[in-house]
Design brief:
Helices cover 74% and strands 0% of the residues. It is an all-alpha fold and 200 residues long. The protein is rod-shaped, with a radius of gyration of 48 Å. The chain starts with a helix and ends in a 40-residue tail after the last helix.
């Protein structure tokens, strides 16, 4: 380089390092350079150590959080499955114990009542020598009486036969949030020792 550039570089060097070229000797400059290199190596090692500690803490926290979320999800799914199973079992019990027999009995009674009413009206009309219109009127009266008796019987059935209500399963306990995160190892195994290497 030119003398001007060299002089500018030398002035900047001595201004930055604070060295006095009239007092310092080459041996002293070598010691300063060695100290600077040693301190630079120590700083890089410390940075690598801090980075490794932070990464170790973050990995441990992520693992703990993932396990905690898994426990919460499993508890919620099990609770919902128990509720669904209870509701389905209750539905099957109600249909088997009440709905199916009631429907079967309803059809049977309806058919038998229709046949009996028809026979009764025909016999009554023949015995009284009544015309067909009077027989229809009598049939209507019998039907109305049947409807009133049916409504009364249904009310009595509801009073004496209560449909059981489903009972929910006990709710599982939700795992508590971990109070303490795992600590970083005291001495990381992958600390960078070389001064020229990039810290991990």
């Amino acid at each position: 380089m030119s003398k001007r550039k060299y002089a500018n570089a030398a002035i900047a060097y001595f201004a930055e390092t604070g060295l006095d070229p009239t007092k310092e000797r080459p041996h002293g400059l070598a010691n300063v350079s060695a100290k600077v290199s040693h301190e630079t190596l120590a700083v890089r090692q410390q940075n690598a150590d801090i980075g490794n500690r932070l990464i170790s803490i973050l990995r441990g926290w992520e693992k703990t959080l993932y396990g905690f979320l898994q426990q919460q999800q499993a508890g919620t799914v099990n609770y919902l499955q128990q509720i669904e199973s209870n509701l389905l079992a209750h539905q099957v019990a109600v249909e088997t114990s009440y709905l199916a027999p009631m429907v079967e009995q309803l059809f049977k009674v309806n058919l038998e009542a229709f046949v009996i009413r028809d026979f009764a009206v025909q016999l009554f009309a023949k015995a009284q020598n009544m015309p067909a219109s009077s027989a229809d009127t009598q049939m209507q009266l019998v039907t109305n009486g049947r409807d009133q008796q049916l409504a009364t019987a249904v009310r009595e059935f509801i009073k004496t036969n209560n449909v059981p209500t489903p009972t929910l399963s006990p709710k599982p306990q939700v795992p508590a949030t971990p109070a303490k995160l795992p600590s970083a190892p005291s001495t990381p195994g992958n600390a960078t020792s070389a001064a020229g290497a990039t810290p991990k």
